Amino acid sequence: MTLTSQQKHALQSGQAVRVTVDETPSVLLREDVYDRVKRVIDYENDPLTDEEQLAALRHVGQLAGWDDPEMDVYNDLDPR
Fold first, then answer.
1. What backbone torsions phi and psi does residue 26 show, to the nearest 5 degrees?
2. Domain tally for the chain?
3. 37 with 60: CB under 8 angstroms?
4. Is 78 contained in some domain?
5. Are 19 and 26 in contact (CB under 8 A)?
6. What's the pTM value of the predicted model, to 2 decimals?
7. Distance between CA atoms of 40 and 54, rounded to whole angstroms?
């Protein structure tokens, strides 16, 4: 697989990179980021505290671009 320099930089920075592999939409993650996400998903085998779960989800959300100002409109849907 060949990545653009922007994609390589994003991966090195810990960001998710969206790609299509044989017509299958996919996401590339740096291994340590994947391990953190997997730990949240695999909660039953390796329980996290509520605070750890929220911190991990916030981190992954930021990597996915959820802190982009254009996403602020979604804050109105959940006034927390």
1. -140, 170
2. 1
3. yes
4. no
5. yes
6. 0.50
7. 9
